[in-house]
User: Fold this.
Amino acid sequence: MFRLDVNSSRGIQAVVLSLSQANREVRKLVRQQSQAVIGPEFQKAMNEGASDLMESKGLALTTKTTLSDRNVTLGTGTKKGPGFSGGFDPRINARVLEFGAKRDAVKTYRSHRKGGKTFNVTRHTQRQFKPNKRAGYVFYPAIAQMAPRILSLWTQTVVRTFHDAMEGKAP
Assistant:
């Protein structure tokens, strides 16, 4: 989860302050219209950033955008996601999809033959993931690209909704 910082701009602080002073129906309308605009835009950025099927299913298709009167919260890997078999759960493993893994890590375990003789098996268990990258591969680059646009869309939606409410226009 990532929350956009409203303290970064006086304009955004004005939006939060104006939302706190608005009546309940206008705030609800702002949240609904903002969600309808911001959610698909961020989903599109995540889809464009995903370079393979694993990132697409595990990160881009599990994107979640939540809006309140005070902030915008962006998340990924918060739901099961479609099309995974074999126990891969994006809710648990989204970190390795976003930041990569230690590809040279090995896991050793005991196995046995039919006759009962046991032996050690050593396997590379994270070779299917990309190498470690501190800045991330999909989610954080999408946030870096989209944060100004998301805040701009939120501000525009608030202003437009307030204007329509003052003129008495129905949504």
Observations:
- Residues 2-100+136-167 form one domain.
- DSSP finds five helices and five strands in the chain.
- The chain has two domains: 2-100+136-167, 101-129.
